[in-house]
## 1
Amino acid sequence: MNGTLLQKFIQSIVDYTGWHIRSLDYKSLSNKILLRIKALKLSSVEQYYGG
């Protein structure tokens, strides 16, 4: 996942929940997002982010 898209996910999480994601957790978050995309059988990260 590219850094720009990851930053958009992180900002969405912050905006929605108020939680802040530590930079050392970025890799774990990215992996969880990719697992979610696979579970939903989506073809791209952009498709998941765009809804």
## 2
Amino acid sequence: MRLLHNPSDVWKLRLIAIWCILLVIGYTAATIFMADILHDEKDLAIARHEARVTKVEVDTGLSDAETEAFNAQNKSENIVVSSGMYIDRIFDVDLPMSHWKVDFYIWFNWDGPNVHPGDNFHIINGKILDKELKTKTSVNRGEVVQNYELYRVVAEITKFFNISRYPRDDHLMTILVEDTKRQAFDLTYLPDEKGSDVSSRVKLPGYEIYSREVIEKGHAYRTRRGDPRLPENYKANFSQLTFGIGIKRASWGLYLKMFVGIFAAVAFSMLAFFVSPAHTSPRFGIGVGAFFASIASIYVISSQIPLSSTYTLTDFVTVSSVVTIFLTLLSSTRSVYMHHHWSDGDTWAWRFDRVVQILFVTCYTVLNITLAASASL
């Protein structure tokens, strides 16, 4: 009992060292665990973005012989349509409501048949709010008629934003265009890479555009849509024109604004170590006040982002902050005990306060810097 109540100086050092080692181990394990999750989320996001703007061959569900027989039966003649987009405006980017709006030009160039692809295109990941034909021309070039159509479109795009790394998030904004009638064997888009671009006027608050790309890729539907002419295992395959715009956080401003309240609460809790353990009321009052301030800050932060069932950067920052404040209160309890029960308690409590204060500041700072770096593109 004497060892626990009033230990020797050697055991006093050991008990303080054990507490400090436990703190370092706990923060190190938490930092590695949370940073690893955020890093994996970042790698998965990069892989998803690359997959969406990379052309891949799509299985139609038919063998080459079956596809050839079906095409011959329908006497289809593949029409190649050169198409591109120019983004003039992006607005109403709403993460909680999972959508964004875009004002853009889209054009079609093709030779031969009078197919008018502008009449039949649609946006499969959103809806067209307004469509206006701006230009329509046909030019005879010998035996070939060259056709051109230019449309201005305003559309609302559905986008389920991944907030696992918010507010250090990045996203790929895509516009997916398909013909409503003609499948890939009938009509294929040829992306106009040189003409497609994003206007320099396009600005997104809090984000910057870091990439843009237009590609064509096949999009197979796992159904024959009840068409009795098709084999049961047939997959309807449409040519899809994809315009991808990569955006990422432009600065650390939002990050600091979001967490300034909870960072201040943690910093305020550290002030308790400057108060003598002889004054228990103000010592614990500081920590308790910081704890409730952090809870209030969490409610404010939660109102700014969509609900998520997965762990996010925001969760990690807020939880680690609340746990840190709780551990400072626990350390204050230990310091008060040393002051009242150990011989030469004032000196040992002062030493303990200085050491754990340095540890808390260092570990908490390293943890948050590591989390932010792991989440950032």
## 3
Amino acid sequence: MDAAEVWAHTRSLDRPQVGRNDRARGFEMFKFEAVPDSALVPWSDANRPRSEYVT
């Protein structure tokens, strides 16, 4: 890969292993933004049964 930068977005809800894995692969934290729990809402189809959208 000849990219100068690659952005990987993770969330505070990701398991701690995600950040450790990223850093072990050479990723560096560029910016940290805290988002209040009240801002975390499910997407519109989050509660739809899997059988409705998987063929």
